[in-house]
Each structure stands twice: as structure tokens, then as C-alpha cells.
What does this fold into?
Amino acid sequence: MSGLLPEGFAALEPFVDTWALATTADRAAQRSASSAEARAAFFAAAAPLLDAALTALKGQPLAELAPQERRLMDLMFALAHVALAVEIQGPDEIVSAPWRDRLRITRSATDRREAA
It folds into this structure.
């Protein structure tokens, strides 16, 4: 592997700084802060690579993921957030954003936890 992501996922590298976030709260906040165009661009780039990403990550212990693989996993977690906005809510995303922002996420199963 070289670069920010595993081989085969270079198309997602422009989205790493914005969407490869460590926690559910960060991903939800980014979803709210992003424009519809930014969400759509990420969705258009990431959705076609979802199956390949899941195959690449399948069966690997989380604690053993290389940094490039962890970034890919974080991008796929962000894709789940963005897919709701793009595929389900569409133009109504702006209506639900204030309610989502009131829900304070403190921890979720997908949050990256550093070894103590």
C-alpha cells in the first residue's frame, strides 16, 4: 500500500481530509456542515467502491488494520451517513439537520478507540 488509502481506492483520496473521521459524532457533524453538492460528490465517488472496500477489509481484526485501511473503513462509515442524506432525504436533508445536531452522540460501536 502507498498513499492515503489501499491500492485501488485512489479515487477517494481527495475526500480523506473531509470524510475519514474517527467518530460517529464527527461524521454526523460533517454531514450537517457539508453542502448538498459536497455530499453528492463524495457519495458518487464512494458508493461504487463500497463492495470492493468491504471485500478488502473483510475478516481483518480492527486492531491490525494499517492506517490506509483504517482510513478506508472510516470513509465507508461516512458513506453510510451520507447515503441517508443523498438517497433518502435528498432536499429534505436541511429540514432534519437541526434535529440531528441536537442529538449529542457520545460514543458508538464504530468509533475508533486508541489503545490505553
User: Anything to note?
Assistant: The chain is about 55% helix and 0% strand. Residues 10-102 form one domain.
